[in-house]
Design a protein that fits this description.
- The structure is a single chain.
- Helix 1 runs antiparallel to helix 2.
- The protein is α/β, with parallel strands linked by helices and about 140 residues long.
- The C terminus is likely disordered.
- It is globular and about 40 Å long.
- The chain has one domain: UDP N-Acetylglucosamine Acyltransferase, domain 1, CATH 2.160.10.
- Helices cover about 20% and strands about 25% of the residues.
- Strands 1-4-7-11 form a four-stranded mixed sheet, covered by helices on one side. A two-stranded parallel ribbon has the order 2-5.
Length: about 140
């Protein structure tokens, strides 16, 4: 699908890449129960790009993982399902943002959508920081 071709679900190469993602997801889940911070290294193997300041909680469910990018300072709570047969990008500072003073975290009140391309189906949104005029 990345090349614009039809998706062939029973292709052996596709199946192997999906199995690799399932193995990494299982390793991530097992490692998280021992040390959630150390497990982030396995998550970095699973995802195409996981910023070093991002944090992910398992379980995660992906087709490939390698087609999903997660930005800086982003928190992914447990149960992420990413149908990443086409690229999925989750931006920075999702779902929390720094206060203007930069000293504490707060809950934003607007939504930011996940960015996708190709024919990926993503129906998630993450809160975005309030505008400067919102208090």
């Amino acid at each position: 699908m990345l090349a614009g071709d039809l998706y062939i679900a029973d292709d052996p190469a596709i199946f192997e890449r999906q199995q690799q993602a399932a193995r990494l997801s299982a390793r991530f889940l097992a490692a998280y129960s021992e040390d959630g911070f150390a497990a982030q290294e396995i998550a970095r193997e699973l995802f195409g790009d996981l910023d070093e300041t991002a944090f992910v909680r398992p379980p995660v469910y992906v087709d490939y993982g390698s087609h999903t990018t997660i930005g800086a300072r982003t928190f992914i709570n447990s149960g992420l399902t990413a149908l990443d047969v086409a690229p999925i990008t989750i931006g920075e500072d999702c779902p929390l943002s720094r206060s203007r003073a930069g000293t504490s975290w707060r809950r934003p009140n607007r939504s930011r959508s996940v960015t996708t391309s190709g024919s990926a189906a993503a129906s998630s949104s993450f809160p975005a920081p309030p505008s400067a005029t919102t208090r």
